[in-house]
Structures are given as structure tokens and as C-alpha cells.
Amino acid sequence: MPSEPMIGARLLLKALVEQGVEDIFGYPGGAVLPIYDEIFKQNRIRHILVRQEGGAVHAAEGYARSTGKVGVVLVTSGPGATNAVTGLTDALMDSVPIVCLTGQVPTHLIGNDAFQEADTVGITRPCTKHNYLVKNVNNLARTIHEAFHVARSGRPGPVVVDLPKDVVLAMGQYVSAADAKPKSYRPQVKGDATSIEQAVELMRTAKRPLFYCGGGVVNSGPRASKLLTELVRTTGFPCTLTLMGLGTFPASDPQYLGMVGMHGLYESNNAMHDCDLMIAVGSRFDDRVTGKLTAFSPNSRKIHIDIDPSSINKNVRVDIGIVGDIANVLEDMLAVWKAKKTSTDRKALAPWWKQIETWRARKCLSYRHDSKIIMPQYALQRLYDLTKHRDDVYITTEVGQHQMWAAQFMRFDKPNHWLTSGGLGTMGYGLPSAMGVQVAHPDALVIDVAGEASILMNIQEMSTISQYGLPVKVFILNNEYMGMVRQWQELMHGGRYSQSYMSSLPDFVKLAESFHAVGLRATKPEELDDVIREMIACPKAVIADIRVDQKENCFPMIPSGAAHNEMLLGPADQAQKPTSEEGMVLV
Amino acid sequence: MATKKAGRKPQSPQPIPLPARPGAVEAPIVKNHTISVLVDNEPGVLARVVGLFSGRGYNIESLTVAEVDPKEALSRINIVTSGTPMVIEQIKAQLGRLVPVHRVTDLTMLGASVERELALVKVRSTGDKRIESLRIADVFRARALDSTIDSFVFEVVGTTEKVNAFIRLMESLGLTDVSRTGVAAISRGAQSI
Ligand SMILES: Cc1cc2nc3c(=O)[nH]c(=O)nc-3n(C[C@H](O)[C@H](O)[C@H](O)COP(=O)(O)OP(=O)(O)OC[C@H]3O[C@@H](n4cnc5c(N)ncnc54)[C@H](O)[C@@H]3O)c2cc1C
Ligand SMILES: Cc1ncc(C[n+]2csc(CCOP(=O)(O)OP(=O)(O)O)c2C)c(N)n1
Ligand SMILES: [Mg+2]
User: Is B17 helix (H, G, I), strand (E, B) or coil?
Assistant: First the structure.
């Protein structure tokens, strides 16, 4: 039975409510005023007014990744939409489900260089999973439902729906989600049974196996993490995680080796190099992980479970590719494992673990202690020690050395509690993302581990944080440098620190106060614990300015163009092994 | 999807045959492939496909698109591209990821298929050259669609190689303009693509 026709803007909100949306991050403007008018008239959906549209998308990313729900953004046409582009690209690279509603000039003006017109669909085509321009109000509700379906199904990602002003003002019919079946998009979720059996067979006979798991396990949901943990424990194999996968296998488990890749642990990278069977689960063989491709894990058979067929055999040829949703595939794999009463080659596994223990004994994360200067690693070690008793801690990061140290020193036993910009590496991600997490989890302890350079990229969101009383904590490892840039300049450009010193920094304590938050500072190691405790206890938002060693570099490091067994473990290695010419051109 | 898990697999005592190991370093043999893509006929779908190719650095040798099923609003895009086996596999997977794409078929991998292309070729000449161009057109079964005292427009249909050969021969006989459709392709036999 068709319902009463209603104005497009109301159809839109009705569709959002049906999709379970409770919070939207947005910023108004001319093209979306009718939508804001409808938002004004209702109270089912809360609108969080950000201070820049880029912040809205990162906030929605934090919201989405910490809850497993789709994050929703609403911005105006032209500059509103173009400001969202970085966040959309970030969400695409890290597979975060986002629906971004953009205003557009009325249909009859499209193409006329009208005021605040931008070809949003054209601009966002390569940085979204899919996008739509709604030209007819009667397609509006259907398109919204389809957008949510596309954003959350298969490999999740950002979807833009461009809404011309005349369409949201026209009268139209509502279509419910059940009546809006998408035409063509049906990703494969069930893994091929024969391939799963072959995988189990390889695992049965493996002598030096390794699980290499990533963000896809987060995407698949908490059940996937449980099944992964069960499978890893059943097999007794070692497990390493990517930056995006931290928390999907418990860091406290003895079978956990730590992060893999460019700044991953010595034991993980060596295990990856020497293994004879690699089981990749929701990880995409990114260049930060593989290093030099021709030297990547040369003697292993590889199994790859991924929902996106284009992830399989993209960078590295694998022996068995299994397309499917991780939770589904792991469940089937465990069923086969049990049904066949499979047992592993224990005789071979013992020396493999012994080898891993010798790598572990190298203690690659140890750092120089200093009684006068706060070492950045020490700051994070203390932050972890003083928060680890809680199970409601969410860590977001900006991009740089602090991000890598956070990945090494903060440990996670559950997925969805670690949020970082991995694929795009977007400075300015951490603060708005933390804001989004806090909106979804008002009572949780949400900490943005930041660098003093990155934090300035979206510092305006402190104002949003203040408006909504979000007690977000910003923990700045202030080294007065774009530390990661300085490290590369030291490594590859003869220590010529071109444009990487951060002069004229604001006084972060006063900055916090001007945003109605609390500012704290630690300059000596003995002040650190008190500052962290005060930060955690504070019911308001806090910026903690932690003055750390300015010259410390992040190790271990696989330099560009090098192999996993050519890791730099500290300053001494760095001096001995100059970067190859081949490596110089790599990012 | 709601299949029972427990005891689903018969217990086979035989070892599972494993796939052959992929060659460690694949010899980079670049080959042409004709890929047929069935898509929703909606605005922007061609831009998505073309943007995918340019954005990821794949080649397009030829591309054609037209609606083939007005009832279901489906179009077929024929793409001739080139790459190593790994790149071709990636191209197909990337195409399959696009939301309005229904089906991706690699006609080159499928085996027997027919491919045709049509070209309109304008030749301007007089005397011997004019006569020679007519003779060659005859050999290629090209039709003269238009003729003036000193020009012809030929229509030639065939494989890309045949069309190329015809155009090459016309170059010395007064060729002035060429307009080509690009490749349309379909599999042989009763099987639908
Ligand atoms: C400064 C810096 C340094 C970095 N250093 C490192 C480093 O040392 N180590 C490191 O690991 N990374 C590092 N990164 C991050 C790196 O760039 C990549 O973002 C990261 O390695 C990718 O993680 P992933 O392989 O888990 O894949 P993700 O990007 O998380 O992709 C997820 C994969 O899972 C698949 N998937 C999604 N959903 C499902 C599902 N339901 N079922 C099955 N499959 C699914 C997707 O198709 C995709 O292939 C660094 C980033 C920065 C900015
Ligand atoms: C938007 C953006 N611009 C530039 C870069 C390149 N970049 C990567 S890390 C970095 C420096 C970060 O400095 P800071 O936030 O102080 O962190 P640190 O490395 O000092 O811990 C830069 C400029 C980036 N990742 N993102
Ligand atoms: Mg810094």
C-alpha cells in the first residue's frame, strides 16, 4: 500500500531511520538546507555539528569502526563535498563503511557552473566504493537503502549519494528497505569447499606455518575474531597481525608474535620470511608488509582468505585463494578440521617455535632509557600500563612515528578498539575519529595518540568535542618535528631536515583551555604518570602535551626496498646499511 | 547459506590433491585479451570502467559499448586490453568489483569466440591509384558507401588484423580519414556469455 507522498528531505530521514541510523556527522549549507529543516523537526536522529567536513568523515569512520555500523555524513554541495574527499579516500583504503550524503545544485542547473556546484559524482568516483546522483525523488528512498547495502556488504567502503536541492524539495513516495532489492551487487560470502579442504591439508603438514591476519577480520565482525582465535589455538601456529588487524587476535596470547611489516617486530618479520606456510586472513599483502616483493617469504605456500577477489593475487601470487567472508570461511575450516580429526606436525612445530623464541629473545622493542628526557616509547608504555586494567579503552592515532610506537606498545585483546589510518596514512585522522568513537561510546576512555604536527591538521574539532561534552583525551608525543619525515631524511637524505622542524607551535595547554578543555604537560619522566592519571580521571576533554626526545627514531624498520631479514633494529644498524637506490624511489 | 556445518563433508581417506605451486617468478608474457562486460545501462557506467583503466594504469586497445537488452536495461562493453596473466586477472577482478557490473567474461580465455570490427575509410585519389584502391577493396570485400570523382568511402568489416591491413594498404593510395567502431565480440557455440 503506497503511503502518503512526502517531501524528499523527509523521505531521506525516514530511510535513514529505517537503516538504524542514530547519529549523523555534518555541516550545513545552501544545498542541504531543506534536509537540515527536516532534521530540526525530528528527534530520532542526532546531528553532530563538526567544524570542517573532513572532520565529519573521519568522525564517521571512528564511529563505524568502533561499532561495526555504517557511519553517516551530511555535507553541502561544492566545498562541502570537496572537503569530504580526503576522508572518503581514507575510508576506501581502510574498508570503512560510510554513507556520505552531499547536497547538489538543482538538477536544471547541473553543468552550468552554478554557485557552489562541483561534479561531486565525478570527483568522488575513484575515491568511493560506489556513488549515486539522485535525479528523481521517487528513487530517493530506494537509493539510500541501496547505498547502505553497498557500504556494508562485501568489502565495506564509502558510498556517496548526491542530492540535488530540487529533488529533496519535491514530493515523492517512500520505498521500504525490503522493497528496494539491489540489482547487481551480491558479493560471495561462502568459501569454496574444495579450497577449504586443500587449505586444511596444507595446514596439517606444515612445518613452519604462520597466520598473517588483518583488517578484514575486523570488517567481518567480532565472531570472526573469536573463530580466528579458536583456529589459531587449535592449530598451535604462531600468529602475526597487520597494523589494521591489531586486536583481532589477543595480544596477550603466547601465540601472538606482534605486528608485522615495516615497523613490525623482528620475530614477526623473520617468521614471515622463513615460514613454509602462510595463512593470510583478511590481509592484503600491502607494500608496508611485504617489503621487497622478489624477496618476500620466498619458500612458503600461501593461503589467502579475502572477500574481495581483486585482493587475491594482486601483489603476491598465492597457492590457494578463498573468496568469502572470514567468519563463514573460518567456521567451515574449523568444521573440516574437526570432522577429519586433523592434527598438526608437532615434531616440526617444536623447532619452529624454538626458532621463534630466539628471535623473540632479541627484544626488538627495547629502547634507550633516559632519566631526564621522556622517551616516546616510555610514554606509551606508561599509558598502556596505566590503562590496561580497563576493557573500554579505545585508541586512535594520527600518522607518524607516534602511530607506529602506539601500534607497538599499546596492546589489544579485542577488535574495534584500535583505530588508525593505515592505507592512506592521513594526518589529522585521529582527533575527529576519536570524537566519533566517543559519540558511539560516551562512557569509554577514548585516547588519540597524536604528534604535534598531525594534531594541528584537524584541531578545530576540539570545538565540536567541547560542544557535545565529549571527554576525548589527546595524548601528544611532542617531539617538535614531523618525526617520521625527519627519520626518513636522516636515513636517505643525509640528515638534511628540509621543512620538517615544527617551529612556532602553539602552547598546547593554553590551546586546550581556549577550547574549554583541560591542558596538561609533562616534560620530565617523573611527571609522566601523574599527567596520565590526571588525564584519565578528568571528566572533560584533555590535551596532554608530552615533551619527548626530539631525535628518537622508530625501530625496528625494514627500509624501503629491503627484505624482511634485512631489518634495522637500532641506530647502529642504520649507520651500517644505507638505503639502496631501488629503495630511494619508493614511498 | 544456511547449510548445516556438522558432518557436511564426507570423510575422505584419500589425500586432497593440492594445486600446483605457482611459478616463483612468472615470465611476463604480455597478451591481448578481449573482455566482455555486462553492465547496467545507467549514467556514468562507462566513466567507471574507463576511470578504472586509467586510474590503475591498464591499457585499452579498443572499447565499444551499446545497450544489448533494453528490457533489463543492460549494456555490453567489449574491451580489448593487454597485460601479463596476473594483470589480466587483476583487471577482471577489478571490473567485477564495480557495483553496476553483472558479469565479466574473458573471451580470450574462453577459447573460441568471434570478433568483428567495422571501419569507414576515406580515400582520395585519381587515375591508377583510384583503380588500385577499388581492386584492393574488392579483395577485402569492402563496399564503397560513397563515391565522388576523386574519392571513396569504403566500409570494411572483419577482425582487427584485417581492418588494420586494409588501412595500411590504403595509406599509399590516398587515405585521408578513418573511423572505426572498435571490437564487438561473442563466444562461439550455443553457450551464452
Ligand atoms: C606510517 C605508516 C606505517 C605503516 N607501517 C605498517 C607496518 O609496519 N605494518 C603493517 O602491517 N602496516 C603498516 N601500515 C599500514 C599499511 O599501509 C596498510 O594499511 C596495512 O598493512 C593494510 O592492512 P591489512 O592487510 O590488514 O588490510 P586492510 O586494509 O585492513 O584490508 C582488509 C582486507 O580484508 C578484506 N576484507 C574486508 N572485509 C572482509 C570480510 N568480511 N571477509 C574477508 N575479507 C574481508 C578486504 O577485501 C581487504 O583485502 C603503515 C601505515 C602508515 C601510515
Ligand atoms: C595529510 C598528510 N600530509 C603529509 C603526510 C606525510 N607525513 C607522514 S608522517 C608526517 C609527520 C608527522 O609528524 P607528527 O604528527 O609530529 O608525528 P611524529 O612522526 O613526529 O610522531 C608527515 C608530514 C601525511 N601522512 N599526511
Ligand atoms: Mg612530531
Answer: coil
Ligand 1 neighbourhood includes A283 CB (under 6 angstroms): yes
Q: In terms of Cα–Cα distance, which of A165, A159, A277, A158 is closest to A211? A: A277
- Please give the domain boundaries of chain A with CATH numbers for all domains: 6-179 (3.40.50.970), 193-360 (3.40.50.1220), 376-554 (3.40.50.970)
C-alpha cell at A373: 628526557
For A23-46, letters b (16+ CB in 10 Å) and e give bbbbbbbebbbbbbebbeeeeebe
Please name each of the domains of chain B with its CATH number: 31-110 (3.30.70.260), 114-187 (3.30.70.1150)
Looking up cell 539510500, which residue turns up? A144
What is the spatial order of strands in the sheet that B101-106 belongs to?
B62-69, B74-83, B31-40, B101-106
Atom of ligand 1 nearest to the CA of A403: 1
Q: What is the 3-state secondary structure (H, E, C) of A406-470?
A: HHHHCCCCCCCCEECCCCCCCCCCHHHHHHHHHHHCCCCEEEEEEECCHHHHCCCHHHHHHHCCC
The pLDDT of residue A2 is: 65
- Which atom belonging to ligand 1 lies closest to the Cα atom of A284? 25
Under DSSP, the state recorded for A473 is E
How far is Cα A304 from Cα A319, in angstroms, rounded to an integer?
Answer: 8
Confidence label for B15 from pLDDT (cuts 50, 70 and 90):
low
Ligand 1 pocket member A220 (CB < 6 A): yes
pLDDT at residue number B193: 82
Q: Compute how many other C-beta atoms are within 10 angstroms of the C-beta atom of residue A73.
A: 30
What cell was used for A480?
617538535
* ipTM greater than 0.90: yes
* Separation of alpha carbons A416 and A185, rounded Å: 26
Can you name the residues that pair with B158 across neighbouring β-strands? B117
Rg of the Cα atoms in chain A: 24
Residue among A42, A115, A338, A582 flagged as catalytic: A115
Give the pLDDT score at B14: 57
pLDDT at B9: 42
Minimum Cα–Cα distance from A124: chain B residue? B48
Neighbours of B66 (CB within 10 A): 11
Is the confidence at residue B13, as pLDDT, over 70? no
pTM, to two decimals: 0.95
pLDDT tens digits, A426-475: 999 999 999 999 999 999 999 999 999 999 999 999 999 999 999 999 99
Low-confidence ranges of chain A (pLDDT < 70): 1-2
pLDDT tens-digit profile of A295-322?
A: 999 999 999 999 999 999 999 999 999 9
Q: Which residues of B touch A (CB under 8 A)?
A: 1, 5-9, 11, 15-19, 21-26, 40, 43-44, 47-48, 51, 55, 86, 89-90, 93-94, 96-102
Question: A13 CB under 6 A from ligand 1?
Answer: no
Residue-wise pLDDT for B100-156, tens only, equals 999 999 999 988 899 999 999 999 999 999 999 999 999 999 999 999 999 999 999
Residue type, B122: K
Structural contact between residues A479 and A449, judged by C-beta atoms closer than 8 angstroms? no
DSSP state of B13: -
Rounded to the nearest whole angstrom, what is the distance from the C-alpha of residue B161 to the centroid of ligand 3? Answer: 60
